[in-house]
């Protein structure tokens, strides 16, 4: 499992709920998952700490099998070439 680093540009602060929010990307089993995460914290919380907490939340939600996520299969260049080759064979 690999989690894409959460950068300060990816984090939003919601002043109504006092929460830091981000969509965290996680790659596992040749698939890409996006988890909408939110952690409570004061506006003065360092963004590095918020990023760490958001990442941990995504990691735990994935491990728990949380169904609130988006998912897509990861495409490789080899898979695309194979699919394209099969398409050409069926078209001929």
Number of domains: 1
The secondary structure category is alpha+beta
Unreliable parts: none
Helicity, as a percent range: 25-40%
Mean pLDDT: 81
User: What oligomeric state best describes the polypeptide chains here?
Assistant: single chain
Distance between the termini: 40 Å
List the helices and strands and how they pair.
Elements (H helix, E strand, L loop, with lengths): L1 E2 L8 E3 L4 E10 L2 E10 L6 H17 L6 E4 L3 H15 L1
Antiparallel strand pairs: 1-3, 2-3, 3-4, 4-5
How does this structure look, described?
The chain is of the alpha+beta class. It has one domain. 35% of the residues lie in helices and 32% in strands. The protein contains two helices and five strands, in the order ββββαβα. It is elongated and about 40 Å long. The mean pLDDT is 81.
Q: Can you give keywords for this protein?
A:
alpha+beta, five-stranded antiparallel beta sheet, 5 strands, 35% helix, elongated
Describe the structure concisely for a colleague.
By secondary structure, the chain is of the alpha+beta class. It has helices at about 45-65, 75-90; strands at about 1-5, 10-15, 20-30, 30-40, 70-75.
């Amino acid at each position: 499992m690999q989690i894409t680093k959460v950068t300060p540009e990816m984090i939003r602060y919601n002043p109504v709920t006092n929460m830091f929010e981000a969509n965290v990307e996680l790659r596992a089993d040749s698939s890409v998952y996006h988890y909408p995460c939110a952690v409570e914290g004061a506006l003065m919380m360092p963004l590095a700490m918020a990023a760490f907490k958001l990442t941990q939340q995504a990691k735990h939600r994935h491990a728990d099998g949380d169904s609130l996520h988006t998912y897509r299969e990861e495409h490789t260049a080899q898979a695309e070439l194979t699919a394209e080759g099969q398409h050409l064979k069926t078209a001929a």
